[in-house]
User: Fold this.
Amino acid sequence: LADKNVVFVPNAFEDKLIKLFPDAYKSIDKRFNVCYLGALTKNRGVDLLVEACQRQHEKYPYLALYLFGPYGEGISSELRDKIENSSIIIRKELPRKDIFSSLKDMDLMIMPYDPRVTYLNFSSPTKLFEYIGTGKPILCTSCLSLLDLFENSGIIYFKYDEADLESKIDQMINNPQCRDKLSEKIMAIRPMHTWNKRSEEIYKAIKSL
Assistant:
């Protein structure tokens, strides 16, 4: 590729999310709904998320974990049973057209991918851009591709470690003003990450070749 023009165009979110979530997130007292969107598969950090939320629920009985997605490869029967039999975990499989309207009462969006897995460390998952589309506070593991892309964006990063994830969730629960400010920062970058904006970037890239 030495003599070639290469343009990196990351993923984006559907423009309809701006209409569904027109305003910045505002915290509500004694409500803390944690959300994971996507398939429950190996290396996605679902096990860490479940354990961290269950422990935090012991301190904050109003915490609930919502998992929107089907079970996939690599999820143990033990973890599946823990999810299905928990009183604080709600797992749903919804048609795509119904998913985003179900996120209105969520307080924290989480993407706990394992950065030790090479392809995840350098991926640009649609999930994270959809989180941005909601304008809600986001916790994300420190994947290299995302650190560079969203520097100073209002996204909070954590180590792929149960204790650090639990600590970050605790901080978010105890700092509602911080959650509101994070949302304002995410709302500020949101217009740059729609598919309409991406199409403009692609068009300009093609014209520059």
User: Anything to note?
Assistant: The beta strands are 32-37, 63-68, 89-92, 108-111, 138-141, 156-158. The CA atoms of residues 34 and 164 lie 16 Å apart. The two ends are 14 Å apart (CA to CA). The first helix runs from residue 16 to 20.
